[in-house]
Amino acid sequence: MSATPSADDVLDPGVEVLALPDVAERLRLPVTKVRQALRDGQLVAVRRDGVLCVPAEFLTSEGSIVKGLPGTLTVLADAGFAPDEMVRWLFTADDSLPGRPIDQLRATGGREVKRRAQALAL
After folding, report:
1. Is residue 80 one of the residues assigned to a domain?
2. Closest CA to 102 of 79, 81, 73, 61
3. Rounded to an integer, what distance in angstroms lies between the CA atom of residue 98 and that of residue 7?
4. Taking 90 as the threshold, does the pLDDT of residue 119 lie above it?
5. Of 3, 80, 78, 76, whose CA–CA distance to 35 is shortest?
6. pLDDT mean across residues, the chain
7. Which residues of 14-38 are buried (b: 16+ CB within 10 A; e: fewer)?
8. How far apart are CA 70 and CA 43, in angstroms?
9. What's the pLDDT score for residue 23?
10. Is this model's pTM higher than 0.70 or not?
């Protein structure tokens, strides 16, 4: 089995992160399925204090992955972004959106966010 990919913790310390067992509980999945989602690029994890964690904002209150996040991560990966660059981009404010890309994904599903991620590849 391959190692679970992760990013450096490039997040502001105030950004809530969840350990994988907590992610599994929220998604109502076994931890092995969460690890598979990380390997498949549906989620990105960071290592905070040595613990593999997922930003809480990647999950909805209904217990699913934010709509549009997996597709956006795929576009960013195709553009050559490393996991830490993906996390940094998603959590960096963009005045033209307005707000952070993760906020727009959570609000709208992210058609405009994906369009901007595709533009980064050009």
Report:
1. yes
2. 73
3. 25
4. no
5. 3
6. 92
7. ebebbebebbbebbeeeeeebbebb
8. 6
9. 98
10. yes
Report how many domains make up the chain: 1
| Segment 28-49, tens digit of pLDDT | 999 999 999 999 999 999 999 9
In which domain, by residue range, is 82 found? 17-120
pLDDT band at 1 (very low <50, low <70, confident <90, very high): very low
Q: What is the DSSP letter of 36?
A: H
CB atoms closer than 10 angstroms to residue 54:
25
Instruction: Count the residues in the chain.
Output: 122
**SS3 category, 75:** helix
Task: Give the number of other CB atoms < 10 A from CB of residue 121.
Answer: 12
Taking phi first (over 0 means left), then psi (-120 to 50 degrees means alpha), and beta for anything else, what does residue 24 get?
alpha
